[in-house]
Design a protein that fits this description.
Blueprint lengths: L3 E5 L3 E6 L16 H11 L6 E3 L8 E8 L1 H12 L4 E9 L6 E5 L8 E9 L3 E8 L6 H8 L25 E9 L6 E5 L4 H9 L1
Parallel strand pairs: 4-9
Antiparallel strand pairs: 1-2, 2-4, 3-4, 5-8, 5-9, 6-7, 7-8, 9-10
């Protein structure tokens, strides 16, 4: 696959994950994942190190994802996530118009505390474009939180019924736009951005 590299140094790699690709295998043990594609490429190029994901994106979410070159670096980066030193910003298209231009969603997911903030960027005819900043990393956090306030993602089919909404898309309209974090070895602030995925750009042009 022609995967776009967004940032690379001797210790970490950030790539632009396409929608429809798992980060790592599920219990179904899929052989083709983003991680396997990247490591197969390293093997073909005769490189001895392996790439390890430092976090995950849902299969249907596009955008920035961070990998470590080796297990020890992975542990350091995962610690940054755990200590909430990684600033994550997503772009989401949500059904309807939010009443408040910004807000916090503080509701637990499967018994664990979860916090997200959002800012409305633009209001369209039947949907809103928002930035979402998750402060915790629960599974499906953004999708669950947006559904909980009555504005599920356009294209949501797991936590809302598509038939309940006029607007549709082939996948949930969620894109991991940027990551900002202190470098695990140097401490220097690194910011990595991903341009909006082509299918979401096309959706905007159509609507």
């Amino acid at each position: 696959m022609n995967l776009k590299v967004l940032y690379e140094d001797d210790f970490i790699l950030a790539v632009d994950k396409p929608a429809g690709l798992l980060t790592i295998p599920t219990p179904k043990a899929e052989s083709r994942t983003l991680t396997s594609i990247l490591n197969d490429d390293l093997k073909l190029r005769g490189l001895s190190y392996r790439l390890h994901p430092c976090h995950r994106l849902d299969r249907d979410t596009s955008g920035v994802i961070l990998y470590a070159k080796g297990k020890s670096v992975q542990q350091k980066v995962m610690e940054l996530f755990k200590e909430r030193k990684v600033k994550k910003v997503y772009v989401a298209f949500v059904q309807g118009e939010l009443h408040s231009p910004r807000g916090k969603i503080n509701s637990s997911i499967e018994g664990s505390s979860a916090l997200s903030e959002y800012i409305v960027i633009e209001k369209k005819k039947d949907f809103s474009i928002i930035e979402v900043m998750p402060f915790t990393g629960r599974k499906n956090q953004i999708r669950i939180h947006l559904k909980s306030i009555g504005h599920p993602l356009v294209g949501e089919d797991k936590f809302a019924f598509r038939k309940d909404f006029k607007l549709r898309h082939k996948r949930p309209c969620l894109h991991a736009r940027s990551l900002e974090f202190p470098h695990p070895l140097t401490g220097k602030t690194i910011r990595v951005e991903s341009p909006l995925a082509a299918d979401l750009q096309a959706f905007l042009e159509k609507h």
